[in-house]
Structure formats: structure tokens, C-alpha cells
Amino acid sequence: MTERKSQIEKFKKVARELDCDDSEAAFDERLREIAKSPPRPAKKVKDKAPE
After folding, report:
1. pLDDT value at 45 more than 90
2. Per-residue pLDDT at 50
3. Kindly report the CA angle at 35 between 14 and 29, in degrees rounded to 5?
4. Rounded to an integer, what distance in angstroms lies between the CA atom of residue 32 and that of residue 1?
5. How far apart are alpha carbons 33 and 47 in whole angstroms?
6. Of residues 51 and 31, which shows the higher confidence score?
7. What's the confidence (pLDDT) of residue 7?
8. CB atoms inside a 10 Å sphere around CB 40
9. What are the φ/ψ torsions at residue 5 (nearest 5 degrees)?
10. How confident is the model at residue 49 (pLDDT cuts 50, 70, 90)?
């Protein structure tokens, strides 16, 4: 009989298989890479026609 695993257990298994790094230093390094990106231009909001 197969053992049913919770969603979190499945996630952890896949994360281990992908050699994910959960250290704070690795997170900070990736965050700095993302933070270097220039911000996207703001979307223009169209005025709605009066109803």
C-alpha cells in the first residue's frame, strides 16, 4: 500500500531533489540580484467615462 504524503512533504522532497538552499545568506544574495533590477514603468490608468 502506498503512503499518502501531505503537500508540504511532497514540496520538501522536491526541494531536496533540486538542491534548494534555505540559508539566509543565499536568500540575501538572491534578493540583492533582484533588487538591482530597475523598476518597471508604472502602468497608465485610463480614466473611466462617466456613467
Report:
1. no
2. 63
3. 50
4. 46
5. 36
6. 31
7. 93
8. 6
9. -110, 145
10. low
DSSP-assigned states of every residue in 19-33: T----HHHHHHHHHH
| Residue 9 amino acid letter | E
Residue 50, φ and ψ in degrees, nearest 5? -60, 140
Instruction: Give Rg (Cα) of the chain.
Output: 21
The enclosing H or E element of 4 equals: none
Mean pLDDT, residues 40-45 taken together: 80
Please state the separation of Cα 48 from the chain's center in Å.
34
The x, y and z cell numbers of residue 18, run together, are 533540486
| H or E segment and range at residue 38 | none
